Amino acid sequence: MNYLFSFAEKDEAPVSKAGQDVVLHLPTDEVTLDGRESTDDHAIVQYEWTLLQGDMSVHMKVPQSGTLKLSHLQEGTYTFQLTVTDTAGQRSSDNVSVTVLPTAYSTGGCSNVCSRYHFFCDDGCCVDITLACDGVRQCPDGSDEAFCQNHSSSSGKNRKEKNYIFEPKSDRGGEHPAPEAGAVLPLALGLAITAVLLLMVACRLRLVKQKLKKARPITSEESDYLINGMYL
């Protein structure tokens, strides 16, 4: 009797990512949401955007799969839901909010008149510099948060290189650590003094040796004379 076994490959559910929450300041009234960072172990076949909260008069357009362009936004808070579907029909949803503030309460806003106290967005406008890298997109194109992420990854790389270059020798293979800068000068002076003393001793020994060579040896007669003189 033959048995047939069928092993179905496991298919994980997709993960929907609607992007970061957005804050706009009038007169800026448009923004593009991007959900293309959503993932699946096979493929995502459908992106669906739904307005859950906010003025229904907002204009919504899909320029390309996974994105949603909003325009004619009014003051208030909007909540959009992104639902993604994979090849197996599994679905996942994520929400993103868009807050539109009036010009009177803007702390900088997206303006074409910028100064050194503003962050310059890639699309040409600017926002208050204190609003950059706060986890919320202030620029319509999101360049204020993208700049923060790029700067953080670059700094992190530089820190790793510095740690590698200035790694203490005592942490590697039991090697002895290098002497501190303050101890180098006394050590050098001590070695110099020791060398001078050794040189002086060597010169003194050489002079004594030369004097011993020049000294005339005592004859046997002189020796007998000295010995007899001791008994007189």
From TrEMBL:
InterPro entries for the chain: Ig-like_fold, LDL_receptor-like_sf, LDLR_class-A_CS, LDrepeatLR_classA_rpt, PKD/Chitinase_dom, PKD_dom, PKD_dom_sf
Organism this protein belongs to: Tupaia chinensis (Chinese tree shrew)
Subcellular location: Membrane
Transmembrane feature ranges: 184-207
Region (Disordered): 150-177
Disulfide pairings: 114-126, 121-139, 133-148
Protein name, per record: Low-density lipoprotein receptor-related protein 11
Domain of life the protein comes from: Eukaryota
Entry keyword set: Disulfide bond, Glycoprotein, Lipoprotein, Membrane, Phosphoprotein, Receptor, Transmembrane, Transmembrane helix
Biased composition (Basic and acidic residues): 161-177
A Pfam cross-reference name: Ldl_recept_a
CC terms in the record's Gene Ontology section: membrane
Assigned protein family: Belongs to the LDLR family.
PANTHER family: LOW-DENSITY LIPOPROTEIN RECEPTOR-RELATED PROTEIN 11 (PTHR46876)
Domain PKD: 30-100
